[in-house]
Amino acid sequence: MPSLFYEEYFPVWIALFVSIFLSIIIFTLSYILAIQNPDTEKLSSYECGFDPYEDARNTFDIRFYLVAILFIIFDLEAVFFFPWAISLSHITSWGFWTMIDFIIELALGFFYAWKIGALEWE
Amino acid sequence: MLFLLLSIVLIISAILVISAQNPVHSVFFLVLVFLTSAFSLFLLEIEFVSLLFVLVYVGAIAVLFLFVVMMLDIKVTKQEKDFMIYLPMGSFLGLIFFLEIFLTLQENFVPFLPLSGRELYINWLNCIDSLTNIKVLGQLLYTYYFPFFLIAGIVLLVAMVGAIVLTLNFTQKAKHQFVFRQILREKKNSIYLIK
Amino acid sequence: MLVLTILKILSVVVIVLIGVAYFTLAERKIMGTIQRRKGPNVVGFQGLLQPLADGLKLFVKESILPSNANKTLFILAPMLTFGLSLIGWVVIPFGESLVLADINVGILYLLAVSALGVYGIILAGWSSNSKYAFLGALRSAAQMVSYEVSIGFILITVVLCSGSFNLSSIVLAQEKVWFCVPHLPMFVLFFISALAETNRHPFDLPEAEAELVSGYNVEYSAMGFALFFLGEYANMLLMSALTAILFLGGWLPLLDIFPFTIIPNSVWFGLKIGGFVVLFIVMRACLPRFRYDQLMSLGWKVFLPFSLGWLILTASVLMSFNWLPN
């Protein structure tokens, strides 16, 4: 059933396919047309002239993980804001104060993170 | 038809998530699962939720998984042994999950759109189409379902505190640079005689 | 229907790519001027054909697939970055009803596309299996993720004032006054976040030449590199366009009186984007690079609380004076 909804989104899907197609075309054409002349030194990973002596996939600082988890939480908070922002005129002050309560809950967490030093990078 | 195809892709990639040898590959299959489920939500004309799937699950949660998997530095897992250990507990949890789904299917989630009874002859489609699903969500979530919304906030708070407590290593102390202290430093308060 | 849509999309894509090409030329020329050099001036009149020559050069170079890289993901990463930078343009209104897909959740769509943009970088860094690439990708991902939070809150502030997620209606809501007047701090914050989101100077730590050589795309050559490059610059253009739409009234003329209304709407939009492009370049030429801890604390300790506070302030003011749009 082709409804108005699908008609609205039709260009988005076409654009998706066009961009995928375009990037594949560009890459393969360049790969085919250019002269490929690989050798071992050329294909080894670049480390400013040194031989790479160990695997590059190392463990790294746990703070990146913390940033990711804080991002999830604040992203979810932002997501809860979206329907609120668009329907604030219909939900009266009750909806407004519900959101303020929600913000206070998260602000508590934010201040905790700040005070304990989770946002510090040395 | 398209929906069926998508479901097949979804299930295949979900199986690949748990059977892939390289954990990073399995996270990428997880991303594929999220994307296909977002697309099937789109086919149900729930554009807002489907974009949220991309935004939250793919853009945030899968990024976290990737970070963790990269950080743990696992090359290839050996899973034949683990599989049997986790099977009973996993299937038990899965059973509970499906039971919950079947129970909630009985409930009607949208209170203003009763599916049976005298309203059967009203063309509800017009009523739905006049509001976008994002507006419907907004008008219900913050008024009618506000306790759930506030509980969600508390869950997020607990998640944040828990993550910080688990990950933060309190012993690490690096030397900090205090710009104002450097600027305030003068001859008369930095040069003094030691007897 | 299908053919027409494809043609429309291709026309937008071609315009974006030409825009990117001349963005790079403008960058080299303006930076040259700031540093009292001439910039490229050999190929074509005053170097006008330089970007095309660069593109051709990259096209016929050898594509190197590093021996210990994960080949599939290594090839996929630049394609993903390039493709994502193009599909965002579908919802951008270039003029009144001059938009490919007038969807009513346009802002969310753009946010989702930019959230997916992290993947191109993580994929590139991880699949290259090189230390510099890996470190660059990590830094870049953490940085983009941090600034996306405040971008989200700023977008909500704008949505609150216009009452719609549709980009065209956001522009139309600014007919009386552009949002950069009441929301001047958010306008500045959004532009700075856009700089960080696109890994641009002064937040270009992922590509810091002095320490990481080139960041996540060290291992890429030829078209792989070119696709990353095109994707990044197209993203910068997209962010400029978004800033213009959200805060500078998109295609609306400066004042709705005679001498300004002669210029067509889409030209106004182009002029605004061009202004931001120049600002991007001047920022690169003038500002030193941030340190990583400064970058993170700016994102989390300044931008996040400030944008959230401004959001609450806006909501309260709109609520108490009953100014909310329906």
TrEMBL record, chain A:
It is an enzyme of class 7 (translocase). Keywords: Electron transport, Membrane, Mitochondrion, NAD, Respiratory chain, Translocase, Transmembrane, Transmembrane helix, Transport, Ubiquinone. It catalyses: a ubiquinone + NADH + 5 H(+)(in) = a ubiquinol + NAD(+) + 4 H(+)(out). The keyword Protein transport does not apply. It is a multi-pass membrane protein. Coiled coil: none annotated. It comes from the Eukaryota. This is NADH-ubiquinone oxidoreductase chain 3. Belongs to the complex I subunit 3 family. Pfam families: Oxidored_q4. The chain crosses the membrane at residues 12-34, 64-88, 94-114. PANTHER family: NADH-UBIQUINONE OXIDOREDUCTASE CHAIN 3. The lineage of its organism: Eukaryota, Sar, Stramenopiles, Ochrophyta, Eustigmatophyceae. Its EC number is 7.1.1.2. Core subunit of the mitochondrial membrane respiratory chain NADH dehydrogenase (Complex I) which catalyzes electron transfer from NADH through the respiratory chain, using ubiquinone as an electron acceptor. Essential for the catalytic activity of complex I. It is found in: Membrane; Mitochondrion membrane. It comes from Nannochloropsis gaditana. GO terms for cellular component: mitochondrial membrane; NADH dehydrogenase complex. One of its GO terms (molecular function) is NADH dehydrogenase (ubiquinone) activity. The gene is nd3.
Automatic annotation (TrEMBL), chain B:
It catalyses: a ubiquinone + NADH + 5 H(+)(in) = a ubiquinol + NAD(+) + 4 H(+)(out). Keywords: Electron transport, Membrane, Mitochondrion, NAD, Respiratory chain, Signal, Translocase, Transmembrane, Transmembrane helix, Transport, Ubiquinone. It comes from Nannochloropsis gaditana. Belongs to the complex I subunit 6 family. PANTHER family: NADH-UBIQUINONE OXIDOREDUCTASE CHAIN 6. It is found in: Mitochondrion membrane. The chain crosses the membrane at residues 50-72, 84-105, 144-168. One of its GO terms (molecular function) is NADH dehydrogenase (ubiquinone) activity. It holds the Pfam family Oxidored_q3. GO terms for cellular component: mitochondrial membrane. Residues 1-20 form the signal peptide. This is NADH-ubiquinone oxidoreductase chain 6. It is a multi-pass membrane protein. InterPro entries: NADH_UbQ/plastoQ_OxRdtase_su6, Nuo/plastoQ_OxRdtase_6_NuoJ.
Automatic annotation (TrEMBL), chain C:
This is NADH-ubiquinone oxidoreductase chain 1. GO terms for molecular function: NADH dehydrogenase (ubiquinone) activity; NADH dehydrogenase activity. GO terms for biological process: aerobic respiration. It is a multi-pass membrane protein. Keywords: Membrane, Mitochondrion, NAD, Transmembrane, Transmembrane helix, Ubiquinone. The chain crosses the membrane at residues 6-26, 73-95, 107-126, 147-170, 176-196, 233-254, 266-287, 299-324. PROSITE patterns: COMPLEX1_ND1_1 (PS00667), COMPLEX1_ND1_2 (PS00668). InterPro entries: NADH_UbQ_OxRdtase_su1/FPO, NADH_UbQ_OxRdtase_su1_CS. It is found in: Membrane; Mitochondrion inner membrane. One of its GO terms (cellular component) is mitochondrial inner membrane. Belongs to the complex I subunit 1 family. Its EC number is 7.1.1.2. Its main location: membrane. Pfam families: NADHdh. It catalyses: a ubiquinone + NADH + 5 H(+)(in) = a ubiquinol + NAD(+) + 4 H(+)(out). Signal peptide: none annotated.
